[in-house]
Amino acid sequence: MYAFNYHRAKTVADALKLYKKADDPKFLAGGHTLIPTLKQRLARPSDLIDISGIATLKGVKVSKTAVTIGALTPHVEVATSSAVKKAIPALAGLAEEIGDPQVRHRGTMGGSVANSDPAADYPAAVLGLGATIETNARKIEADKFFKGVFETALKDGEILTKISFPVPEKAGYMRFDQPASRFALVGVFVAKFKGGVRVAVTGAGPCAFRVPAMEKALSAKFAPEALEGITVPADDLNSDIHGSAEYRAHLITVMAKRAVAAAK
Length: 264
What we know:
Strand content: 25-35%
Number of helices: 10
Radius of gyration: 18 Å
Mean pLDDT: 96
Shape: globular
Helix content: 25-40%
Distance between the termini: 46 Å
Low-confidence stretches: none
Number of domains: 2
Strand order of the largest sheet: 4-5-10-6-7
CATH class of the largest domain: Alpha Beta
């Protein structure tokens, strides 16, 4: 990797101050995407600002209406939290399936969401539950957050601090793994609320997206059979050696049915 200056921030204010002083800085949380990128010399930041030690960005808080998770909370804490399991079992289950034990202990929810990897799991939960993403400067609705491949609504120097997930009546998540990496070839998160149903997909497109036709059908009848005959156009979906766009389109319906069946 190329040489860089390393800084370990103690607070959000400290991190922002360091960021403004640097020529071409990057924030470092869990590092599961950034560090391999640096090793392959695909990025050349002047400064790395390590925010992993900022205690105020960690932790889980659960109320009757929402589960709020600090951006630096590791996947394992979400997966094993009894409060999260009770409030939104599908969210805890999603976190439990991420990577392997090493990844779950080091990787962070905020890092995953801010990175917007097309095959990451958390974006499906964020969009499927209609979460609110909070930064050091503002609140962003889930529907306005994901913009494209590794692209979000975050502005230069903005730090994701926490995410608030509304508690649904029921929710389910099902993923079809890409066998080599165990990332989602297609993952579907379904959440039933009093006012309707949200269906979000990851792995299939450039970034997580919703499926209005499925949401309408499930709002009328929350059952797997309600999705019979509903397909997602393959035109804008990913296509690679692991699966064509048409195959991913087929998997979306299959995984959506399974997510509904598993919802609790």
